[in-house]
Q: What sequence folds into this?
């Protein structure tokens, strides 16, 4: 008999976003991949049970390359979560994407290394499609909610994920910008693809905190620091909370997106 679901929707918190809901329950979870980043808080929002997990830990003690992404995503699956909202801090790579604005990404480019990035190590070889890695239904809900709230939000964008924990050199940042990628981050991969492997819908909400290593030809824009990221994120925390509170109640109970049947035809037997 399947375990009773304890949550409907999951939220992976980014930097500074550690007070999502009034706590109704706090769970310590173990998975076959180890412990997740922290205890998971369960709250309720308009009849939906929401599970919140700070991906860096409550006190931001886990650097991006040390996060146990498999344990975090597996813990959400264990709770019965079918849809995940994943806000995070990002740097802008393009002048029109200004700090304080949001990007609902539709693509990613992975530049990380040495991260364990699959649940399927054999014996059955499994190839999921990530042509469209972010859930189209959740993206639509998020974009519509941002519009309703009059939040500056870019409706698409490619996020390039770097290994971290260091920020980019100017040459690296220039290269990423010249590829016409929009934003840069350290945690989106493999979180997004692991969710797809477990047939969980996943949407990224990127909060732009800085201009990465600066803007080409604009000496007034200095390279990013950790203090910059935290300050902008905290300043916009309320706006992010409003967006999540608006979007989460709109999630569909029936899923017809690619995420819900990602394993169909993926296993070679």
A:
């Amino acid at each position: 008999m399947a375990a009773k679901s304890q949550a409907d929707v999951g939220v992976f918190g980014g930097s500074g976003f550690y007070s999502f809901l009034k706590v109704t329950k706090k769970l310590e979870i173990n998975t076959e991949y180890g412990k997740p980043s922290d205890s998971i808080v369960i709250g309720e929002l308009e009849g939906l049970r929401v599970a919140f997990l700070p991906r860096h830990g409550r006190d931001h003690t886990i650097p991006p390359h040390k996060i146990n992404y498999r344990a975090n995503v597996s813990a959400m699956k264990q709770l019965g979560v079918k849809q995940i909202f994943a806000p995070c801090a990002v740097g802008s790579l393009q002048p029109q994407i200004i700090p304080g604005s949001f990007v609902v990404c539709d693509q990613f480019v992975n530049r990380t290394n040495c991260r364990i990035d699959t649940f399927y190590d054999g014996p059955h070889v499994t190839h999921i499609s990530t042509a469209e890695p972010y859930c189209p239904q959740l993206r639509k809900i998020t974009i519509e909610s941002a519009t309703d709230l009059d939040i500056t939000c870019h409706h698409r964008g490619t996020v390039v994920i770097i290994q971290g924990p260091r920020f980019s050199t100017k040459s690296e940042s220039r290269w990423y910008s010249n590829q016409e990628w929009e934003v840069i981050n350290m945690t989106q991969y493999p979180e997004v693809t692991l969710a797809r492997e477990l047939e969980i819908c996943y949407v990224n909400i990127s909060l732009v905190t800085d201009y990465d290593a600066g803007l080409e030809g604009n000496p007034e824009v200095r390279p990013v620091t950790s203090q910059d990221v935290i300050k902008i994120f905290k300043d916009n925390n309320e706006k992010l909370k409003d967006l999540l509170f608006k979007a989460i109640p709109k999630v569909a109970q029936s899923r017809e997106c690619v995420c819900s049947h990602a394993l169909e035809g993926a296993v070679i037997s």
